[in-house]
Amino acid sequence: MVILNIITLKIKIWIPLIAMALMLLSFGNVKAEEKKIDPLLQEYMEKDPLLKEWLEIIDFYPKRDREWEKKWVGKTIDETNVDQVKDLLPQIAYLAIKSKNWNAYAPVEPATINWRPSKGFIEATKKGMGKVTVESECPYIMRNFVAGMPFPRPGNDPVKIAWNRDRGCYEGDSWSCHTLLFEVYDSKGRGRTVGCDYNRLYWGHRTDLEPKPDLPGNKAGIYRTTGLRVRSPFDIAGLSLLVIKYKDTHKEEDLYLYVPTMRRVRRLSAGQRCDSLAGTDAAWDDCDVYDGEVRQNDYKFIGIQDKLTWYDVHYPYPETADWEGGYFSGLPLQKHPMYVMEANSNIPNFCYSKRIWYIDPVSSRIYNATLYDRKGRLWKEQFSAMTKSMKNPDIPKNIPAAATQVLDWQAQHNSPWHYEPPEEGKVIGPITHYPWDPVVFTPEGIKRMGH
Amino acid sequence: MKSRFIFCLVVLVFISFSMFTVCNVNEAHALSFLEGKLDVKGFMRNDSAWRIRHGSNAQEGLEPWDLVLCRNTFQLEIEYKPTDWLTVFAIPRLVYDASLDLDRSLERRIVSYRRHDFKVEDDIREIYADIFWGKWRARIGKQQIMWGETDLFRMADIVNPLDISWDYLLYSTVSSFEDIRIPLWALDINWASYTGYQWSFEFVWLPGFIEDGFEPHKVAPEGANWALPGTPQFMVDSIRKSEPEDGWENSEFGLRVKGIFRGWETSLFYFYSRTDHPTPLDDVEQRLLGSVNLDPDHGGALIPGVPLYAHPGEYFEYPFTSKIGATFNKYQDSTKFIWRGECVLTIDDPMIDRYVMDRTYERETFQYMLGFDRPTMINFLNPGRSFLLSFQLFQKYIFNFNHHMQDHSPGGCRNDRYQVVATFLINTGYRWDTILPQLLLAYNFTGERGEGCILPQCEFWIGDHWRVGLGAHIMMAHNMREPYFGGFRHNDQLYTWLKYQFD
Known about the structure:
The structure holds 2 protein chains of 2 kinds. By secondary structure, chain A is of the alpha+beta class.
């Protein structure tokens, strides 16, 4: 009897142990299955050890849908076939193509990965792994973040994904874009253009260029400064906007505007974020797709879904590019897995009630945003692409918004942003040395640059 | 009928000329030379204004719908940047005011020798070089220097005098101070830090011996639409004639220190300069009486309607004063307000006597402004864009005041120990900021019965090159003794502008 009891007990102990072992084994198989890396991605990783290291850190290996690509690559999505890819497109893109109003069409390209982080960014991310936390009571407060991507493995946590996009969306420590053109078209093709210089300097959370992680003496705790100087048309030429963001994300950003007709710098209120940016369909809040703070939204993770985006648009623009040609401007779409997230504004009376974002799990960039008005009606959509600089291959620069397009569906109005056809190396470029006239990024500096 | 025809002709010529000369320049940066180092941009513009009331006093004889302004401006802005550390900038400007040629009665009101000066302006308005060296920047040349936080009324913006000869109020709405400040030769050295709390330091020196040397405010000739009340032509001429000789002794200088601390942007400044308005000399009555004669060919009318004439002469002086001031602005996150403020203490501010011409006073005056800007959504008026609401309250206090005193307010008629003026501005944009309405109100609470003005306007943007606008000046003053608007209480007018710009 005693022996029987012992045998029974042993069986009772062993059964769960065996079950657990079987489960672990099966999970391992699943993970091994998931890690079956696409041969093209494998090729990219072999060519680019930094990309390989990065994908290992984030533990995410985007898959390529070969069957789908066999069917679609080389074709153009237009009103005749858009229904077949309805689920892969954001809502307004589908409606625009379907309605024929916007001469909207898009060629399809095979999926590529042209983005890569720098060595410094990878090291900074590795250093911070496991150390960066968010407050359990309030996830909008982040602790112990120094530089790099705060949460390289965010799982399905939408707030961590939002933090990654906010602080870990790598674009170098500084960059300069000249002759950025904002254009505005109505559905009849009547338009106007605003030409700008667009510069950015990171004062904190720097990863590549000495001094890092902060510029010396950054007592004010500045995270980054962005300068936008209008070059044309004449009556607003010389307007210089300076946006100062702070490392403390609960500190409201400072905005200054040099007004040439007044010859002085006016301080602006961050309450103007819903106003049109340079008369385009985008609001100030739509800079870099989303220019607000993490804390200003409540988030909902919808899932990882394959989506069509401007994933790899860069200089030189493809021959199909046609900025006056309507929505998509002839730029190619690629199919990639994206985090699909909902961001509901928690600011009372804010112009947008909800945003749907497609965020790339590799770069944490938002490639597409669909925006809803206060009444929850479909309002705008923003496609965004990024580019790599053409010089300084040692320091990869993933400049955001090499091309961006905002379509206001309610007003039937369209604003593409892009750069003038560049003279090589002169239009977009990283700033590879310090100091790079940081004085330009002060209120006094924007006054100096004006007349 | 004839004048309307000529007006239409001028406008047509303006449009045709702009089309023919610059229609090919419709691409961004089309006028760029020397591998992009030389940029040329500019505009052609017509500003026209019609009175809507009969004139009074200084403007007596002007009728409703008289065209009192038809100013055609051709302006270029040339920037040459040969290196990273040097930029040269110039603004040549050519102005022709056709109103005198279109309305002969208006022309006859202005003395013949001032007509050309009133009608035509052709000069290099600004020309200077910027030299950058690390944290330093030096700007050398003929330039405008702007300090301060206020809009519409000037307190810390004291470096350049104003040209109020062609309009007294347009600057506050259409043209802005940029178009009516008189640029001066100056050296402006600026140092700025760029990390931590930002500091900047500025030193300004106006040598006073180059070109026109010292320049006071420029006022309209007698008989013009914006002529100063009670100022006969020989006095207007005397204002110029009394300017001091060019020389080192006219040197003016200023210092400014600016810093940003915990979101407070603050500055302290000091400026030592001559006053930009004239003060009668101690012996002005003797000088004046010495020039009085009965011959209309020798001098201007002393008093309208009385056959006594006086020569323009050196009746005035421009004494030095010291101004010490401070400014601040602060963004308040919780309310989305930008708070702004400014104060100035003027040492030895000259005052004239209301009754005795050769009696003057020197008093300390203290002025301050408190105001705010706030973007505000007013959904039922514009659901897509905020309205900018901007409010300013100005107060001036004269120490040791007596009731005989009169300061140099443009209406120049009465004064109070206190002056309290408020302004309110509201503007927004419709249709992607291509329709830009604005309303400006200014009110002086310390006039005899209160006085003010209402300035509504709207500008329309047509593509990248054309701008059209219209607006009105509605004056609210009961008698000419009100200090700011009293002298111009009947100068209600409608105005329009048409602009072609290229870059």
